[in-house]
Amino acid sequence: MKNKCVEIWDKCLSIIEDNIPPQSYNTWFAPINPINFDNDVLTIQVPSQFFYEWLEEHYITLLRKTIRMVIGSGASLEYSVIVDNNSTDKSKSYAVKYPATDKKATQNNQVSMPLDLNKGKTRDIPNPFIIPGLKKLKVESQLVDTYSFDNFIEGECNRLARSAGWAISENPGKTAFNPLLVYSSVGLGKTHLAHAIGLQVKKNFPEKIVLYVKTDQFINQYIDSVRNNNQNDFVHFYQMIDVLIIDDIQFIAGKEKTQDVFFHIFNHLHQNNKQLVLTSDKPPVELKGMEPRLLSRFKWGLAADLQMPDLETRISILRKKLYKDGIEMPYEVVEYLAYSITTNIREMEGALISILAQSTLNKKSITLDLARQMIDKFVKSTTREISIDYIQKVVCDYFSVPLDVLNSKTRKREIVQARQLAMYFSKMHTKNSLATIGLHCGNKDHATVLHACRTVNNLIETDKQFRVYVDDIDKKLKL
Ligand code: ADP
Ligand code: MG
What is the dihedral of CA 413, 415, 419, 420, to 10 degrees? Predict the structure, then answer.
């Protein structure tokens, strides 16, 4: 049944591809070979044990839903793990039966929310919003366990948003932070924090109804309810929620009808001291296409932003992730990743996953060299921007000067020279202003930085040994 299994797996892939970022798809799904389909059992071949474990840990829900959708409810999935690259008959097999007893599905009074997976396809849930005669509503919160406060590293970059979120989870609906609007550009932790708040509320108040929805899901549900003529059910459903978390609210911009219905839901919840948590990729003032009456309500509570974490926090985030997944990696590699990727946390995690995948697929150990190659190949063009931090690190390593000495007030000649070089390279390789560079290099003003750049330029022309330093460091920066 070779062709059949390829056909089935292709269908699965097209669903999976729609539901995860391209980088994860390429890393974890593209290398899989479908090898058999028989009696509703699909067998897929994966390149290593680690690969199998990673899939089971991170993508089990997606895989389960996908194969159920493609094959039907009796579907099961089997893995064939390649143990030795040269001989496939040394492979191990794992049978994973889906559906494993799905507790949620067998609970009575379960209200199923339409999933993103079903987008654009017919749903087999005729009316997701209401179940007649319900005593106590049970809602699938759609919260992801790993997006917890425990796993959310605290730093200057997220202090306000995080503590407001924590306060809310101790006292939902009763703090001044209602609504809480968390905003930032992509990949800086809005979704993670939103889930963390929901999870923490559930921990503190198990009886409270918490719901996490993405804005596009909310919009699609609303459109469906109009089509099925059950808008009232839709509104009632949402008005019963105790903690409503809506992710990426900017997508509601320009959608007048949805804004209108959201306005009513918002008012009802707010008046009844129910908590609202919203996330957005822009601060409220910059949200275009939003009705003024809604915007003004967003400002009733607290708008808090998330920034790119500083180097130390980035390292902690990576280490936490490795620790959680039980993976060991040399510290210098972790440090290198944190130094090189300064765009956002998601990209940093993406690079980490690529390095892990590369090392397991090719059975190479994880070294600084491997990390460099990967970063160059996968993320250089978009993210490898040399930062002031990185320049300082390279200069300090080159002259064997500790970072705190470089940035201290000392006027020792060698230190001054190293500091001036750090300033010079920061001017050359980053887009930072003279003032910012000064601030990072020992709290100096912009005139000092300008002076440093001139001095370095002069020395390059007049001092041969100095020119060697400059060339060496420049090469190291571009490695
Ligand atoms: P956004 O919703 O802002 O685009 P996400 O919440 O999806 O960003 O975060 C991107 C990735 O970065 C996620 O894997 C998330 O777990 C991780 N992340 C973000 N902030 C932190 C943090 N403070 N500590 C640990 N991981 C974080
Ligand atoms: Mg998000």
Answer: 20
